[in-house]
Specification:
The chain has 89 residues and is α+β, with helices and mostly antiparallel strands. It has helices at 16-34, 59-67; strands at residues 2-9, 38-43, 50-55, 76-83. A four-stranded antiparallel β-sheet has the order 2-3-1-4.
Length: 89
């Protein structure tokens, strides 16, 4: 099942601790991508947040992966939406 996850960033990345957390977030996303969980993702160019497209069995798994991200709840909050890719390449 596919999910779209909208990340809303609410913390300033200028502090050393937040920068460390952001880099940990990046490493976590790379791991998800390498495992085939993260299909696509990145920031909106208007700084409105980020989008993740995940392929997982259920929403509980999305919640698990977000909970394993050290930046979740500290630097960003997430909205999870079931998603269907109609136009596949």
């Amino acid at each position: 099942m596919q999910f779209a996850v909208l990340l809303t960033w609410f913390a300033d990345l200028g502090s050393p601790e937040n920068t460390r957390l952001f880099h940990a977030h990046e490493r976590h996303m790379v791991k998800l991508y390498q495992q085939g969980v993260l299909q696509a993702g990145g920031p909106f160019l208007d700084s409105a947040g980020s989008l993740l497209l995940l392929e997982v069995p259920d929403e509980k798994t999305v919640t698990h992966w977000l909970g394993a991200d050290p930046a979740h709840g500290v630097l960003y909050r997430a909205q999870i939406h079931p998603w269907q890719n109609v136009f596949k390449s």
